[in-house]
């Protein structure tokens, strides 16, 4: 994605199920401790795009620049659990830095 979101893929059956449970076509905000992540699922390709507030703002700007309809941000508290472990899906943190969880 041009906004800087990182592509991650689930590695376990539990991660695949959580990916399938995310609302399709929507960005979901996930809070993990003091960090906030934004996840856009792509279940058809068995992957998700993950970014932080900076990447989400860039994504919103791109959408505004393209005059696309604003999509609603879904706050999904059920995805705040420790078993999500987004960083383990690709071996690094969602932003390419050290794994935050």
Could you describe the 3D structure shown?
- The chain is an alpha+beta fold.
- The chain is 22% helix and 25% strand.
- The longest helix is centred in the middle third of the chain and has 13 residues, at 53-65.
- The two termini are 23 Å apart.
Encode the helix/strand succession as letters.
Answer: EHEEEHE
Can you count the beta strands?
Answer: 5
Largest sheet: 5 strands, mixed
Strand line-up across the major sheet = 1-4-3-2-5
What is the averaged pLDDT score?
A: 74
Separate helix tally: 2
**Shape by Cα distribution:** globular
**Helical content (DSSP H or I, runs of 4+):** 10-25%
Percent range for β-strand residues: 15-25%
Radius of gyration: 13 Å
List unreliable stretches of 5+ residues: 74-78, 91-101
Entry summary:
The chain has 2 helices and 5 strands, in the order βαβββαβ.
Please write out the topology.
Elements: E1 6-8, H1 13-21, E2 27-32, E3 35-42, E4 47-51, H2 53-65, E5 73-75
Parallel strand pairs: 2-5
Antiparallel strand pairs: 1-4, 2-3, 3-4
List keywords for this structure.
disordered C terminus; 101 residues; 25% strand; five-stranded mixed sheet; globular; 2 helices
